[in-house]
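Hi R.,

Here's the chain you asked about this morning:
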Amino acid sequence: MEEHHLLEEQLAFSLSWKQAHLSLLSLFIIGLIRARSVNLVLVAETFGGFALDSSHYKRIQRFLSTFTMDYDQVARLIAKWVLPKGKWLLCLDRTNWKYGKTNINILVLAVAVKGVAIPLFWKMLDKQGNSNTKERKDLMDRFLKVFGKESIKCITADREFKGGKWLKYLKEKEIPFCLRIPVNTKVNNRFRNKKLPVKRLFCLQNGESMVLNTPRKVWGETVKLACFRSSNDWVIIICNESPELALKNYQERWMIETLFQALKGRGFNLEDTHLQKQERISKLFAVLTLAFCWCYKVGEWRNSVIPIKIKSHGRLAKSVFRYGVEWLRQLFNDIRRFGTKVCRFIKLIAKEKPDERELFYLFDIKAIN
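And the predicted structure, written out as tokens:
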């Protein structure tokens, strides 16, 4: 499998791992794409070669159970493959499900990029329900250690990520934030003689938005507020910079929901994993993220050559990720015929955008006007 060795070489540029681990990782990434599932039995069946499928399966199990993964290196590799230069808009959210009686709960810090979010760091939570301030701080500290605060445009998060200690931490670290708060959060009125539910500070009709001129204290910290009222909800955002951009920045948070959909039912069926130990699931999530990034990048290239159809309601007929994973699977399913193209996709994996002629060849466009 020439493509497996080429991917191994690409990984070696960023990961200082032993060759055996890089070899397994490259097979694992390709196997996830070919199987489009995290079912390790199905993934092992894609490895090929002279070894039995059961041997490949045990090899994957050993990797997930005994290998010590450097997640900082993985984050740098993800950034190198997919993320643009400059400041990033971060999204913080959780994804959770149950396997039997086991709660699987993952806190994810991702970067919003062109309609989807790219995971950089994640933390397994040994409980059901929301994260606490320490868990969020641990995740942010890992990001700051690797990429620094100068790489952050702002961080967005939903209503569950609340609390004075969390706000204080973000302000002390000088991290711009746009956080949604519950509509019943108590805030002082403009005379500061009475506390009211925060939505009573805004007089809005459906479809209107508003920014308060005067900062207010929320959970003991001074912040700026913006609000949008839809037909059935109030979206109230607190921020420490540029309140006029707060609502726009917060909208980017929805990209992480697109990510979770891609990793679960609309992509790799993450919830089908039978793994229960947290560290093994964390390693699987890392490999899955690398596979997702490759598929997303191929989908983005394909969309630049053959645009995804737009439906009557104005949305894309399919996601960029799905556009990419379908193309790669088609090539892998007939590897003898399309092996050369797969190899060229691998060689281009770290490029921001290949030459136009290269893309036209890879996506079967025979003429350039």
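The chain is about 45% helix and 20% strand.

Let me know if you need anything else.
M.
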